[in-house]
Amino acid sequence: MCARQKTVLIGVTGCIAAYKSCEIVRAFQKRGVRAKVVMTEHATEFVGPTTFRALTREPVAVGLFDEPGSPIHHISLAQEADLMLIAPCTANVIAKLAQGICDDLLTTTALATKAPLVIAPAMNVNMYEHAATQRNMQILRERGCHFIEPDEGFLACGDTGKGRLADIGEIVDACLEILEVEQDMAGLNVLVTAGPTQEPIDTVRCITNHSSGKMGYAIAEAAAARGAQVHLISGPVSIPEPQGVQVHRVTTAQQMLEASQELVDGCDIVVCTAAVCDFRPAAPASRKLKKGDGTSELEHIELVQNPDILATLASCEGRRAIVGFAAETDDVVEYAKGKLASKRADLIVANDVSEGKVFGSERNEVWLVTAEGEEHVPEMDKVHLADVVLDKTLSLYDLKMA
Ligand code: CTP
User: Fold this and answer.
1) Is the CB of 339 under 6 A from ligand 1?
2) In terms of domains, do 195 and 308 share one?
3) pTM passes above 0.70
4) Whose CA is nearest to atom 21 of ligand 1?
5) Are residues 30 and 162 in the same domain?
6) Is 153 helix (H, G, I), strand (E, B) or coil?
7) Are residues 77 and 138 in the same domain?
8) Nearest CA to ligand 1 atom 27
9) How is 277-320 classified by DSSP, letter by letter?
10) Alpha carbon of 124 to those of 10, 90, 104, 127, 165: distances in Å?
11) Catalytic one of 157, 267, 272, 277
12) Is any atom of ligand 1 closer than 6 Å to the C-beta of 274?
């Protein structure tokens, strides 16, 4: 996995300056930021979605019901964005945002996102200076929107005055400053378990599962990026170590338990993503067992149950938020509720692993199950999902510590 990459959702509205949004996309990409584009219908009169599709190598959505890859596209776009920039933004879209009107994909996404909203207006000087536009901008400022003032100069309509889209460098710099990862986990100690465990049958064979470790690694990296001290206890995986995290490599469930128990004291948050093997061979052979040597050891392997790491950590002394994952193939939420209670967790992130979904995949769709009920999180990549899980975890942690 590469360093955690930020996503800027660029909203393009119907204005002659729409062609400049192409340069904005490029400028973000050069700074290592992933750019996605959502356009209004009117914007497509100035630049076609194909141009943005080619520049971003991502689907470009215009209509509320275009659904490239998601049944509730405005929600997944809203959640994927670390920042939403509307540039150029017309007086009409500013007015709609001020009133909470959402009659197309762009305005609906802007209302649905919790990411910071940055608006770079571009319009005729009289429209910009009109009391209605100024009032609408004031309303949005009071709600925390950031504005990048337009420049003065010769306007496409022939007038001269304030209304030209701000300098692209200025727009991008302002967004990057806002994008600075919030250090909302500074001072917290976080323990993450990840990957599969391997339980030896003999010196060459083992029992294991298909976990790639990607979800746990993404959570560890996101927590570190948000300022936490992170210990990651990882089973055998073949993905790169996340940045800014102390990694402890283990093989078996027993080793994972021991490493976790050593570190749990002083931890504020425990996130168990590991796909721990529930059983292990009772007496692993210290040589390679032969299939044809007259023994039946390989045909009948006696298994014993492994300790439940999550439940053990949840019963340790000290107040902390405990998060588990539940891999289910049916009755996903119901089983997760059972695990929430039996393991005494504060949050269970439940996912449907039927039909080869999830394991090894870059994306996931989950339900956040707590004592208060369940919340559906639409499919998104695991890097962004990690932040969604951490947001929920932090709010539960704050409640527990209050
Ligand atoms: N877990 C754990 N130790 C185990 C088994 C599971 O810490 N020995 C944790 C996992 O890391 C996950 C949660 O418990 O956070 C649920 O794991 P899951 O495999 O979904 O459930 P199990 O408890 O193993 O139950 P079952 O296999 O019957 O669904």
Assistant:
1) yes
2) yes
3) no
4) 326
5) yes
6) strand
7) yes
8) 278
9) -SEEESS--SSPPPTTSS--TTTS--EEEPP-HHHHHHTSSS--
10) 22, 9, 23, 5, 11
11) 157
12) yes
Q: Which residue, by CA, sits nearest to atom 9 of ligand 1?
A: 310
Which contiguous run of DSSP H or E holds residue 154? strand 151-154
* Start-end of H helices in 330-381: 332-342
Per the CB < 8 A criterion, the answer to whether 188 and 268 are in contact is: yes
Residue nearest to atom 24 of ligand 1 (CA): 278
Instruction: Judge whether 195 and 234 are in contact, CB under 8 Å.
Output: yes
d(CA 53, CA 81): 17
**Chain position carrying tokens 């292990």:** 280
The rounded Å distance from CA 366 to ligand 1 centre is 16
C-alpha span between 109 and 96 (Å, rounded): 12
Domain count, the chain: 2
Q: Give tens-digit pLDDT for 84-128.
A: 999 999 999 999 999 999 999 999 999 999 999 999 999 999 999
304 CA to centre of ligand 1 in angstroms:
15
277 is catalytic: no
Domain boundary among 145, 161, 179: 179
Please tell me whether residues 162 and 17 are part of one structural domain.
yes
Chain segment 62-86, per-residue pLDDT in tens: 888 776 555 567 778 888 899 999 9
Ligand 1 centroid, distance to 345 Cα (angstroms): 12
**CA distances (Å), origin 147, targets 23, 141, 209, 292:** 19, 7, 50, 75
Tokens at 386, concatenated? 């990690």
- CA dihedral (199, 205, 209, 212) in degrees, to 10, reads 100
